[in-house]
Amino acid sequence: MSLPLIRSGTCTGVASVPLVSRPSVILIDIETSPNIGYSWGKWEQSIIAFKKEWELLSFAYKELGSKTTHCYARPDFDDETDYSLTLAAWDVFENADVLIGHNIDQFDNRKLRAKFVEHSLPPPKPYKTIDTKKIAKSQFAFNSNSLNDLAATLKLGKKHPTGGFDLWLDCMAGDPKAWKKMIAYNKHDVVLLEQVYLRLKAWYPNHPNLALLANKPGCPVCSSARVQRRGYQVLKTRRAGRLHCQECGHWFSRALNDAMCVE
Is the pLDDT of residue 14 over 70? Predict the structure, then answer.
């Protein structure tokens, strides 16, 4: 099957589109199966032996600002392992400049990289990550930093209900209705992720510089050229111009002699 890649890739020979000048910013979320093993009890037990290790069940992604959310799951491929699904995820990584996820640094990124190595795939080209959970924890004091609770607190919506762990069991058993529900759940998580990211991004001082990635002057968070100079700020060894983005509201600094576009 052909994958709707954002930019031209170097692996697998799937259909691609020409390289674009703006950075490829991708929101992504994965779903995995649990490890299956043996234990002597139910509470805080050591696993005696693994029967089956976790596998990739599905992943959903969308380009930032796009109206279309894509999702690929195990039923989309013929093989009995998660190799083809992992390869599809590798293609997305290979064609991304920035990947956004909720807890992506601790979960999605590391889990997928583990699968890349397991299936003898090479490292994808370097990319930046933006973790919305890290933004929430480092910049605010919400009662909860889960995606569902953040979205509810910010009045952006809620995650789709799954009905609990039975959904995962039914998918692993090959139930088509369960897979349909899982795919809808996975895709909606990415839509919700985008809304949370858009609300929080201007507050994040360590946001990857999208203007620099696009090789044009502008706001590092949204790359807009609608920037106003607002005095200066004192850094450790020098003064720098203080700028305010009129699109997303992000504050940042530049060298006083930096000839960037301003309103």
Answer: no
